[in-house]
Amino acid sequence: MQFAMIVTNTETVAGYDIVAIRGLVQGNTVRAKHAGRDIAASFKNLVGGELKGYTELLTESRREAMQRMLIQAQQLGANAVVNVRFTTSAVTAGAAELYAYGTAVSLEQIHEVRHKEKPGKAPETETS
Fold it and tell me: Are 87 and 99 in contact (CB under 8 A)?
């Protein structure tokens, strides 16, 4: 399912006004460690470096939690989610939750007012 949605970790979106707050939205996923990744991670701990298996697991988890959050925002009629945050927590030994949350809002683009100056005359107002 693909849809256009503005997502930001700030409280506002430049060039837009928040016209309606739709509510808190969230998405989560609980993932368990993979035995193969644990074995590879144990070896990597001996020599140091990135644990790529875990990096991939967390990246996939963030993507899934955010997708679930965006689906909820769309169901509320929002076209953006502001103030997005991620958090993790241990659920049990070997499993963790990744949680994404934010505020679903409806945005409208701000229409700028431009002033044109003509020599010898007061500025004229033009809307775009």
Answer: yes
Residues 91-109: b if buried by 16+ CB within 10 A, e if exposed: eeeeebbbbbbbbbbbbee
Give CA–CA dist 62/109, Å, rounded. Answer: 29
What pTM did the predictor assign?
Answer: 0.75
Q: Which two tokens stand for residue 88?
A: 């993790």
- Tokens representing 126 are 């033009």
Kindly calculate the radius of gyration of the chain based on its CA atoms and give it in whole angstroms: 22
User: Residue ranges of the chain with pLDDT lower than 70?
Assistant: 1-3, 34-47, 113-128
Helix or strand or coil: residue 49?
coil
For domain 6-127, is the CATH number 3.30.110.70?
yes
**Hey, where are the domains in the chain?**
6-127
Of 83, 101, 86, 81, nearest to 22 by C-alpha is 81
